[in-house]
Amino acid sequence: MILVAVKETDVLIIGAGIVGAALARELSRYKTRVMIVDKEIDVSFGTSKANSGIVHSGIHDHPGTLKARLCLRGNRLFPELAAKLNFLYKQNGAVIVCRNKEEIPALEKLYDNGKLNGLTGLRRLTKEELLHMEPHLSPDLAAAIYAPSGGTVVPFDMVFALVENAVANGVCLSLLTEVQKIMPGREDFLVQTGQGLIRTAYLVNAAGLHAAEVAGMIKDESFSIYPRKGEEYLFDRKLEGMVHSTVFPLPDKISKGILLIPTVDGNIMIGPTAHRVNSFNELSTSASGWQEVFASAGVLAPFLRPADLIASFAGLRAGSNSDDFIIGPSPVSPRFIHAAGIESPGLTAAPAIAEYLVELLKEAGLKLKEKSDFNPLRPVVRLREFDRETQKQLAAENPAYANIVCRCELVSEGEIRDAVRRGASTLDGVKLRTRSGMGRCQGSFCTPQIIKILGEELKKAPAEITKNGPGSFLLAGWLRNRDEAVAEKEEKLNA
Fold first, then answer.
1. Domain count, the chain
2. Which helix (H) or strand (E) covers residue 352, if one does?
3. Could you give the residue numbers annotated as active site?
4. pTM above 0.85, yes or no
5. For a FRET experiment, which of 48, 71, 105, 471 has its CA 20 to 30 Å from that of 328?
């Protein structure tokens, strides 16, 4: 008889994006076994990595929906959550503008919608008031609404923070763990993954683009998911301060429009597009996408120039056959709970979605008792945020903080080593945790040094280091052959 090892947990979360991460952290408050799995090599590497990073005010959502209720609650949780977990967030406000006088009635309807959703502090702005607040916007704009509770966040930094804090409080994280089959039992589920079997009493489907596929594993066909691509374009930080608030046009039936987004890090980002695509792997940017985004953003901000563009990327949103979030127990099993179709404002709503999911798990029978030793804090060093005296003190305590690896973004060797020890195992994992390689030179200077540090920390040869997981090796040709030869020689000498 062959005995197969089975991992046991009380709650299994499928998907380590923003919703799965928020739920894992919320459940880590309690005395219960929690496991979160993801098929990628790092958390946030699915939809969350390419999120626009907007913390929505709640003005856009239809009153009475889960989107409206959870967006407002999530928005209000952000300041305290960011302070405790030390992720990059800024409450910079949002303005929704109309481009001509004919759009003013639609702007008024949006104002009324925000009031119905419970927003406070909303202000109508005349053309003159708007240009006083944002003097670099187009003088042709007619009027605006100001929502002070709007903000921006670095989405992957938030996911890293949530997961790291969850793991520090006892949650088990398993990456490169793709769910292949789910076998429902009378009181539990047996889940087959690429890393072995997992038995769980409760299961939360937060699988993003693949949520319908996961639901289908228990013969639940109650919803469908399709990918909608959004292209984003990032400008040089020298434009910092040209726009302070996130700038929205009036929304259309498909999306909230193409925006001007002043990121937490000081860049201006424009986008996204919103086009349904056929492939769940379609992440290319395009000339037509750039033209669409630049033309729309240029109407709002005539100061933008193509010469200041430094990066572009695309992400996929999990569109669904519902106009609202799909959050609730499966019709097949009350212990199998969906968190699917989490489109905008899903990032904003995520902390509130996590609270809601905990209540649904309790209703399904999960017994929860709070821990007395729950630690809500996540410390992290970002050298560029400290004054000179603090930087000198850190360097005196650890010389690695004095060695600047990424000059564009002022990222030290110490921060890169910290990132690896917190979970980064790829070049992209380090990049997203530290901003190394995100500056004007886009990693031309620092990439070789980061590969070297990753190799030292992970006890791997440089040829084994990848950009973002299996198959994405960074060294090729004679560089790779040379590195493999050196590694083989060192192995023989050590033997």
1. 3
2. helix 346-363
3. 56
4. yes
5. 48
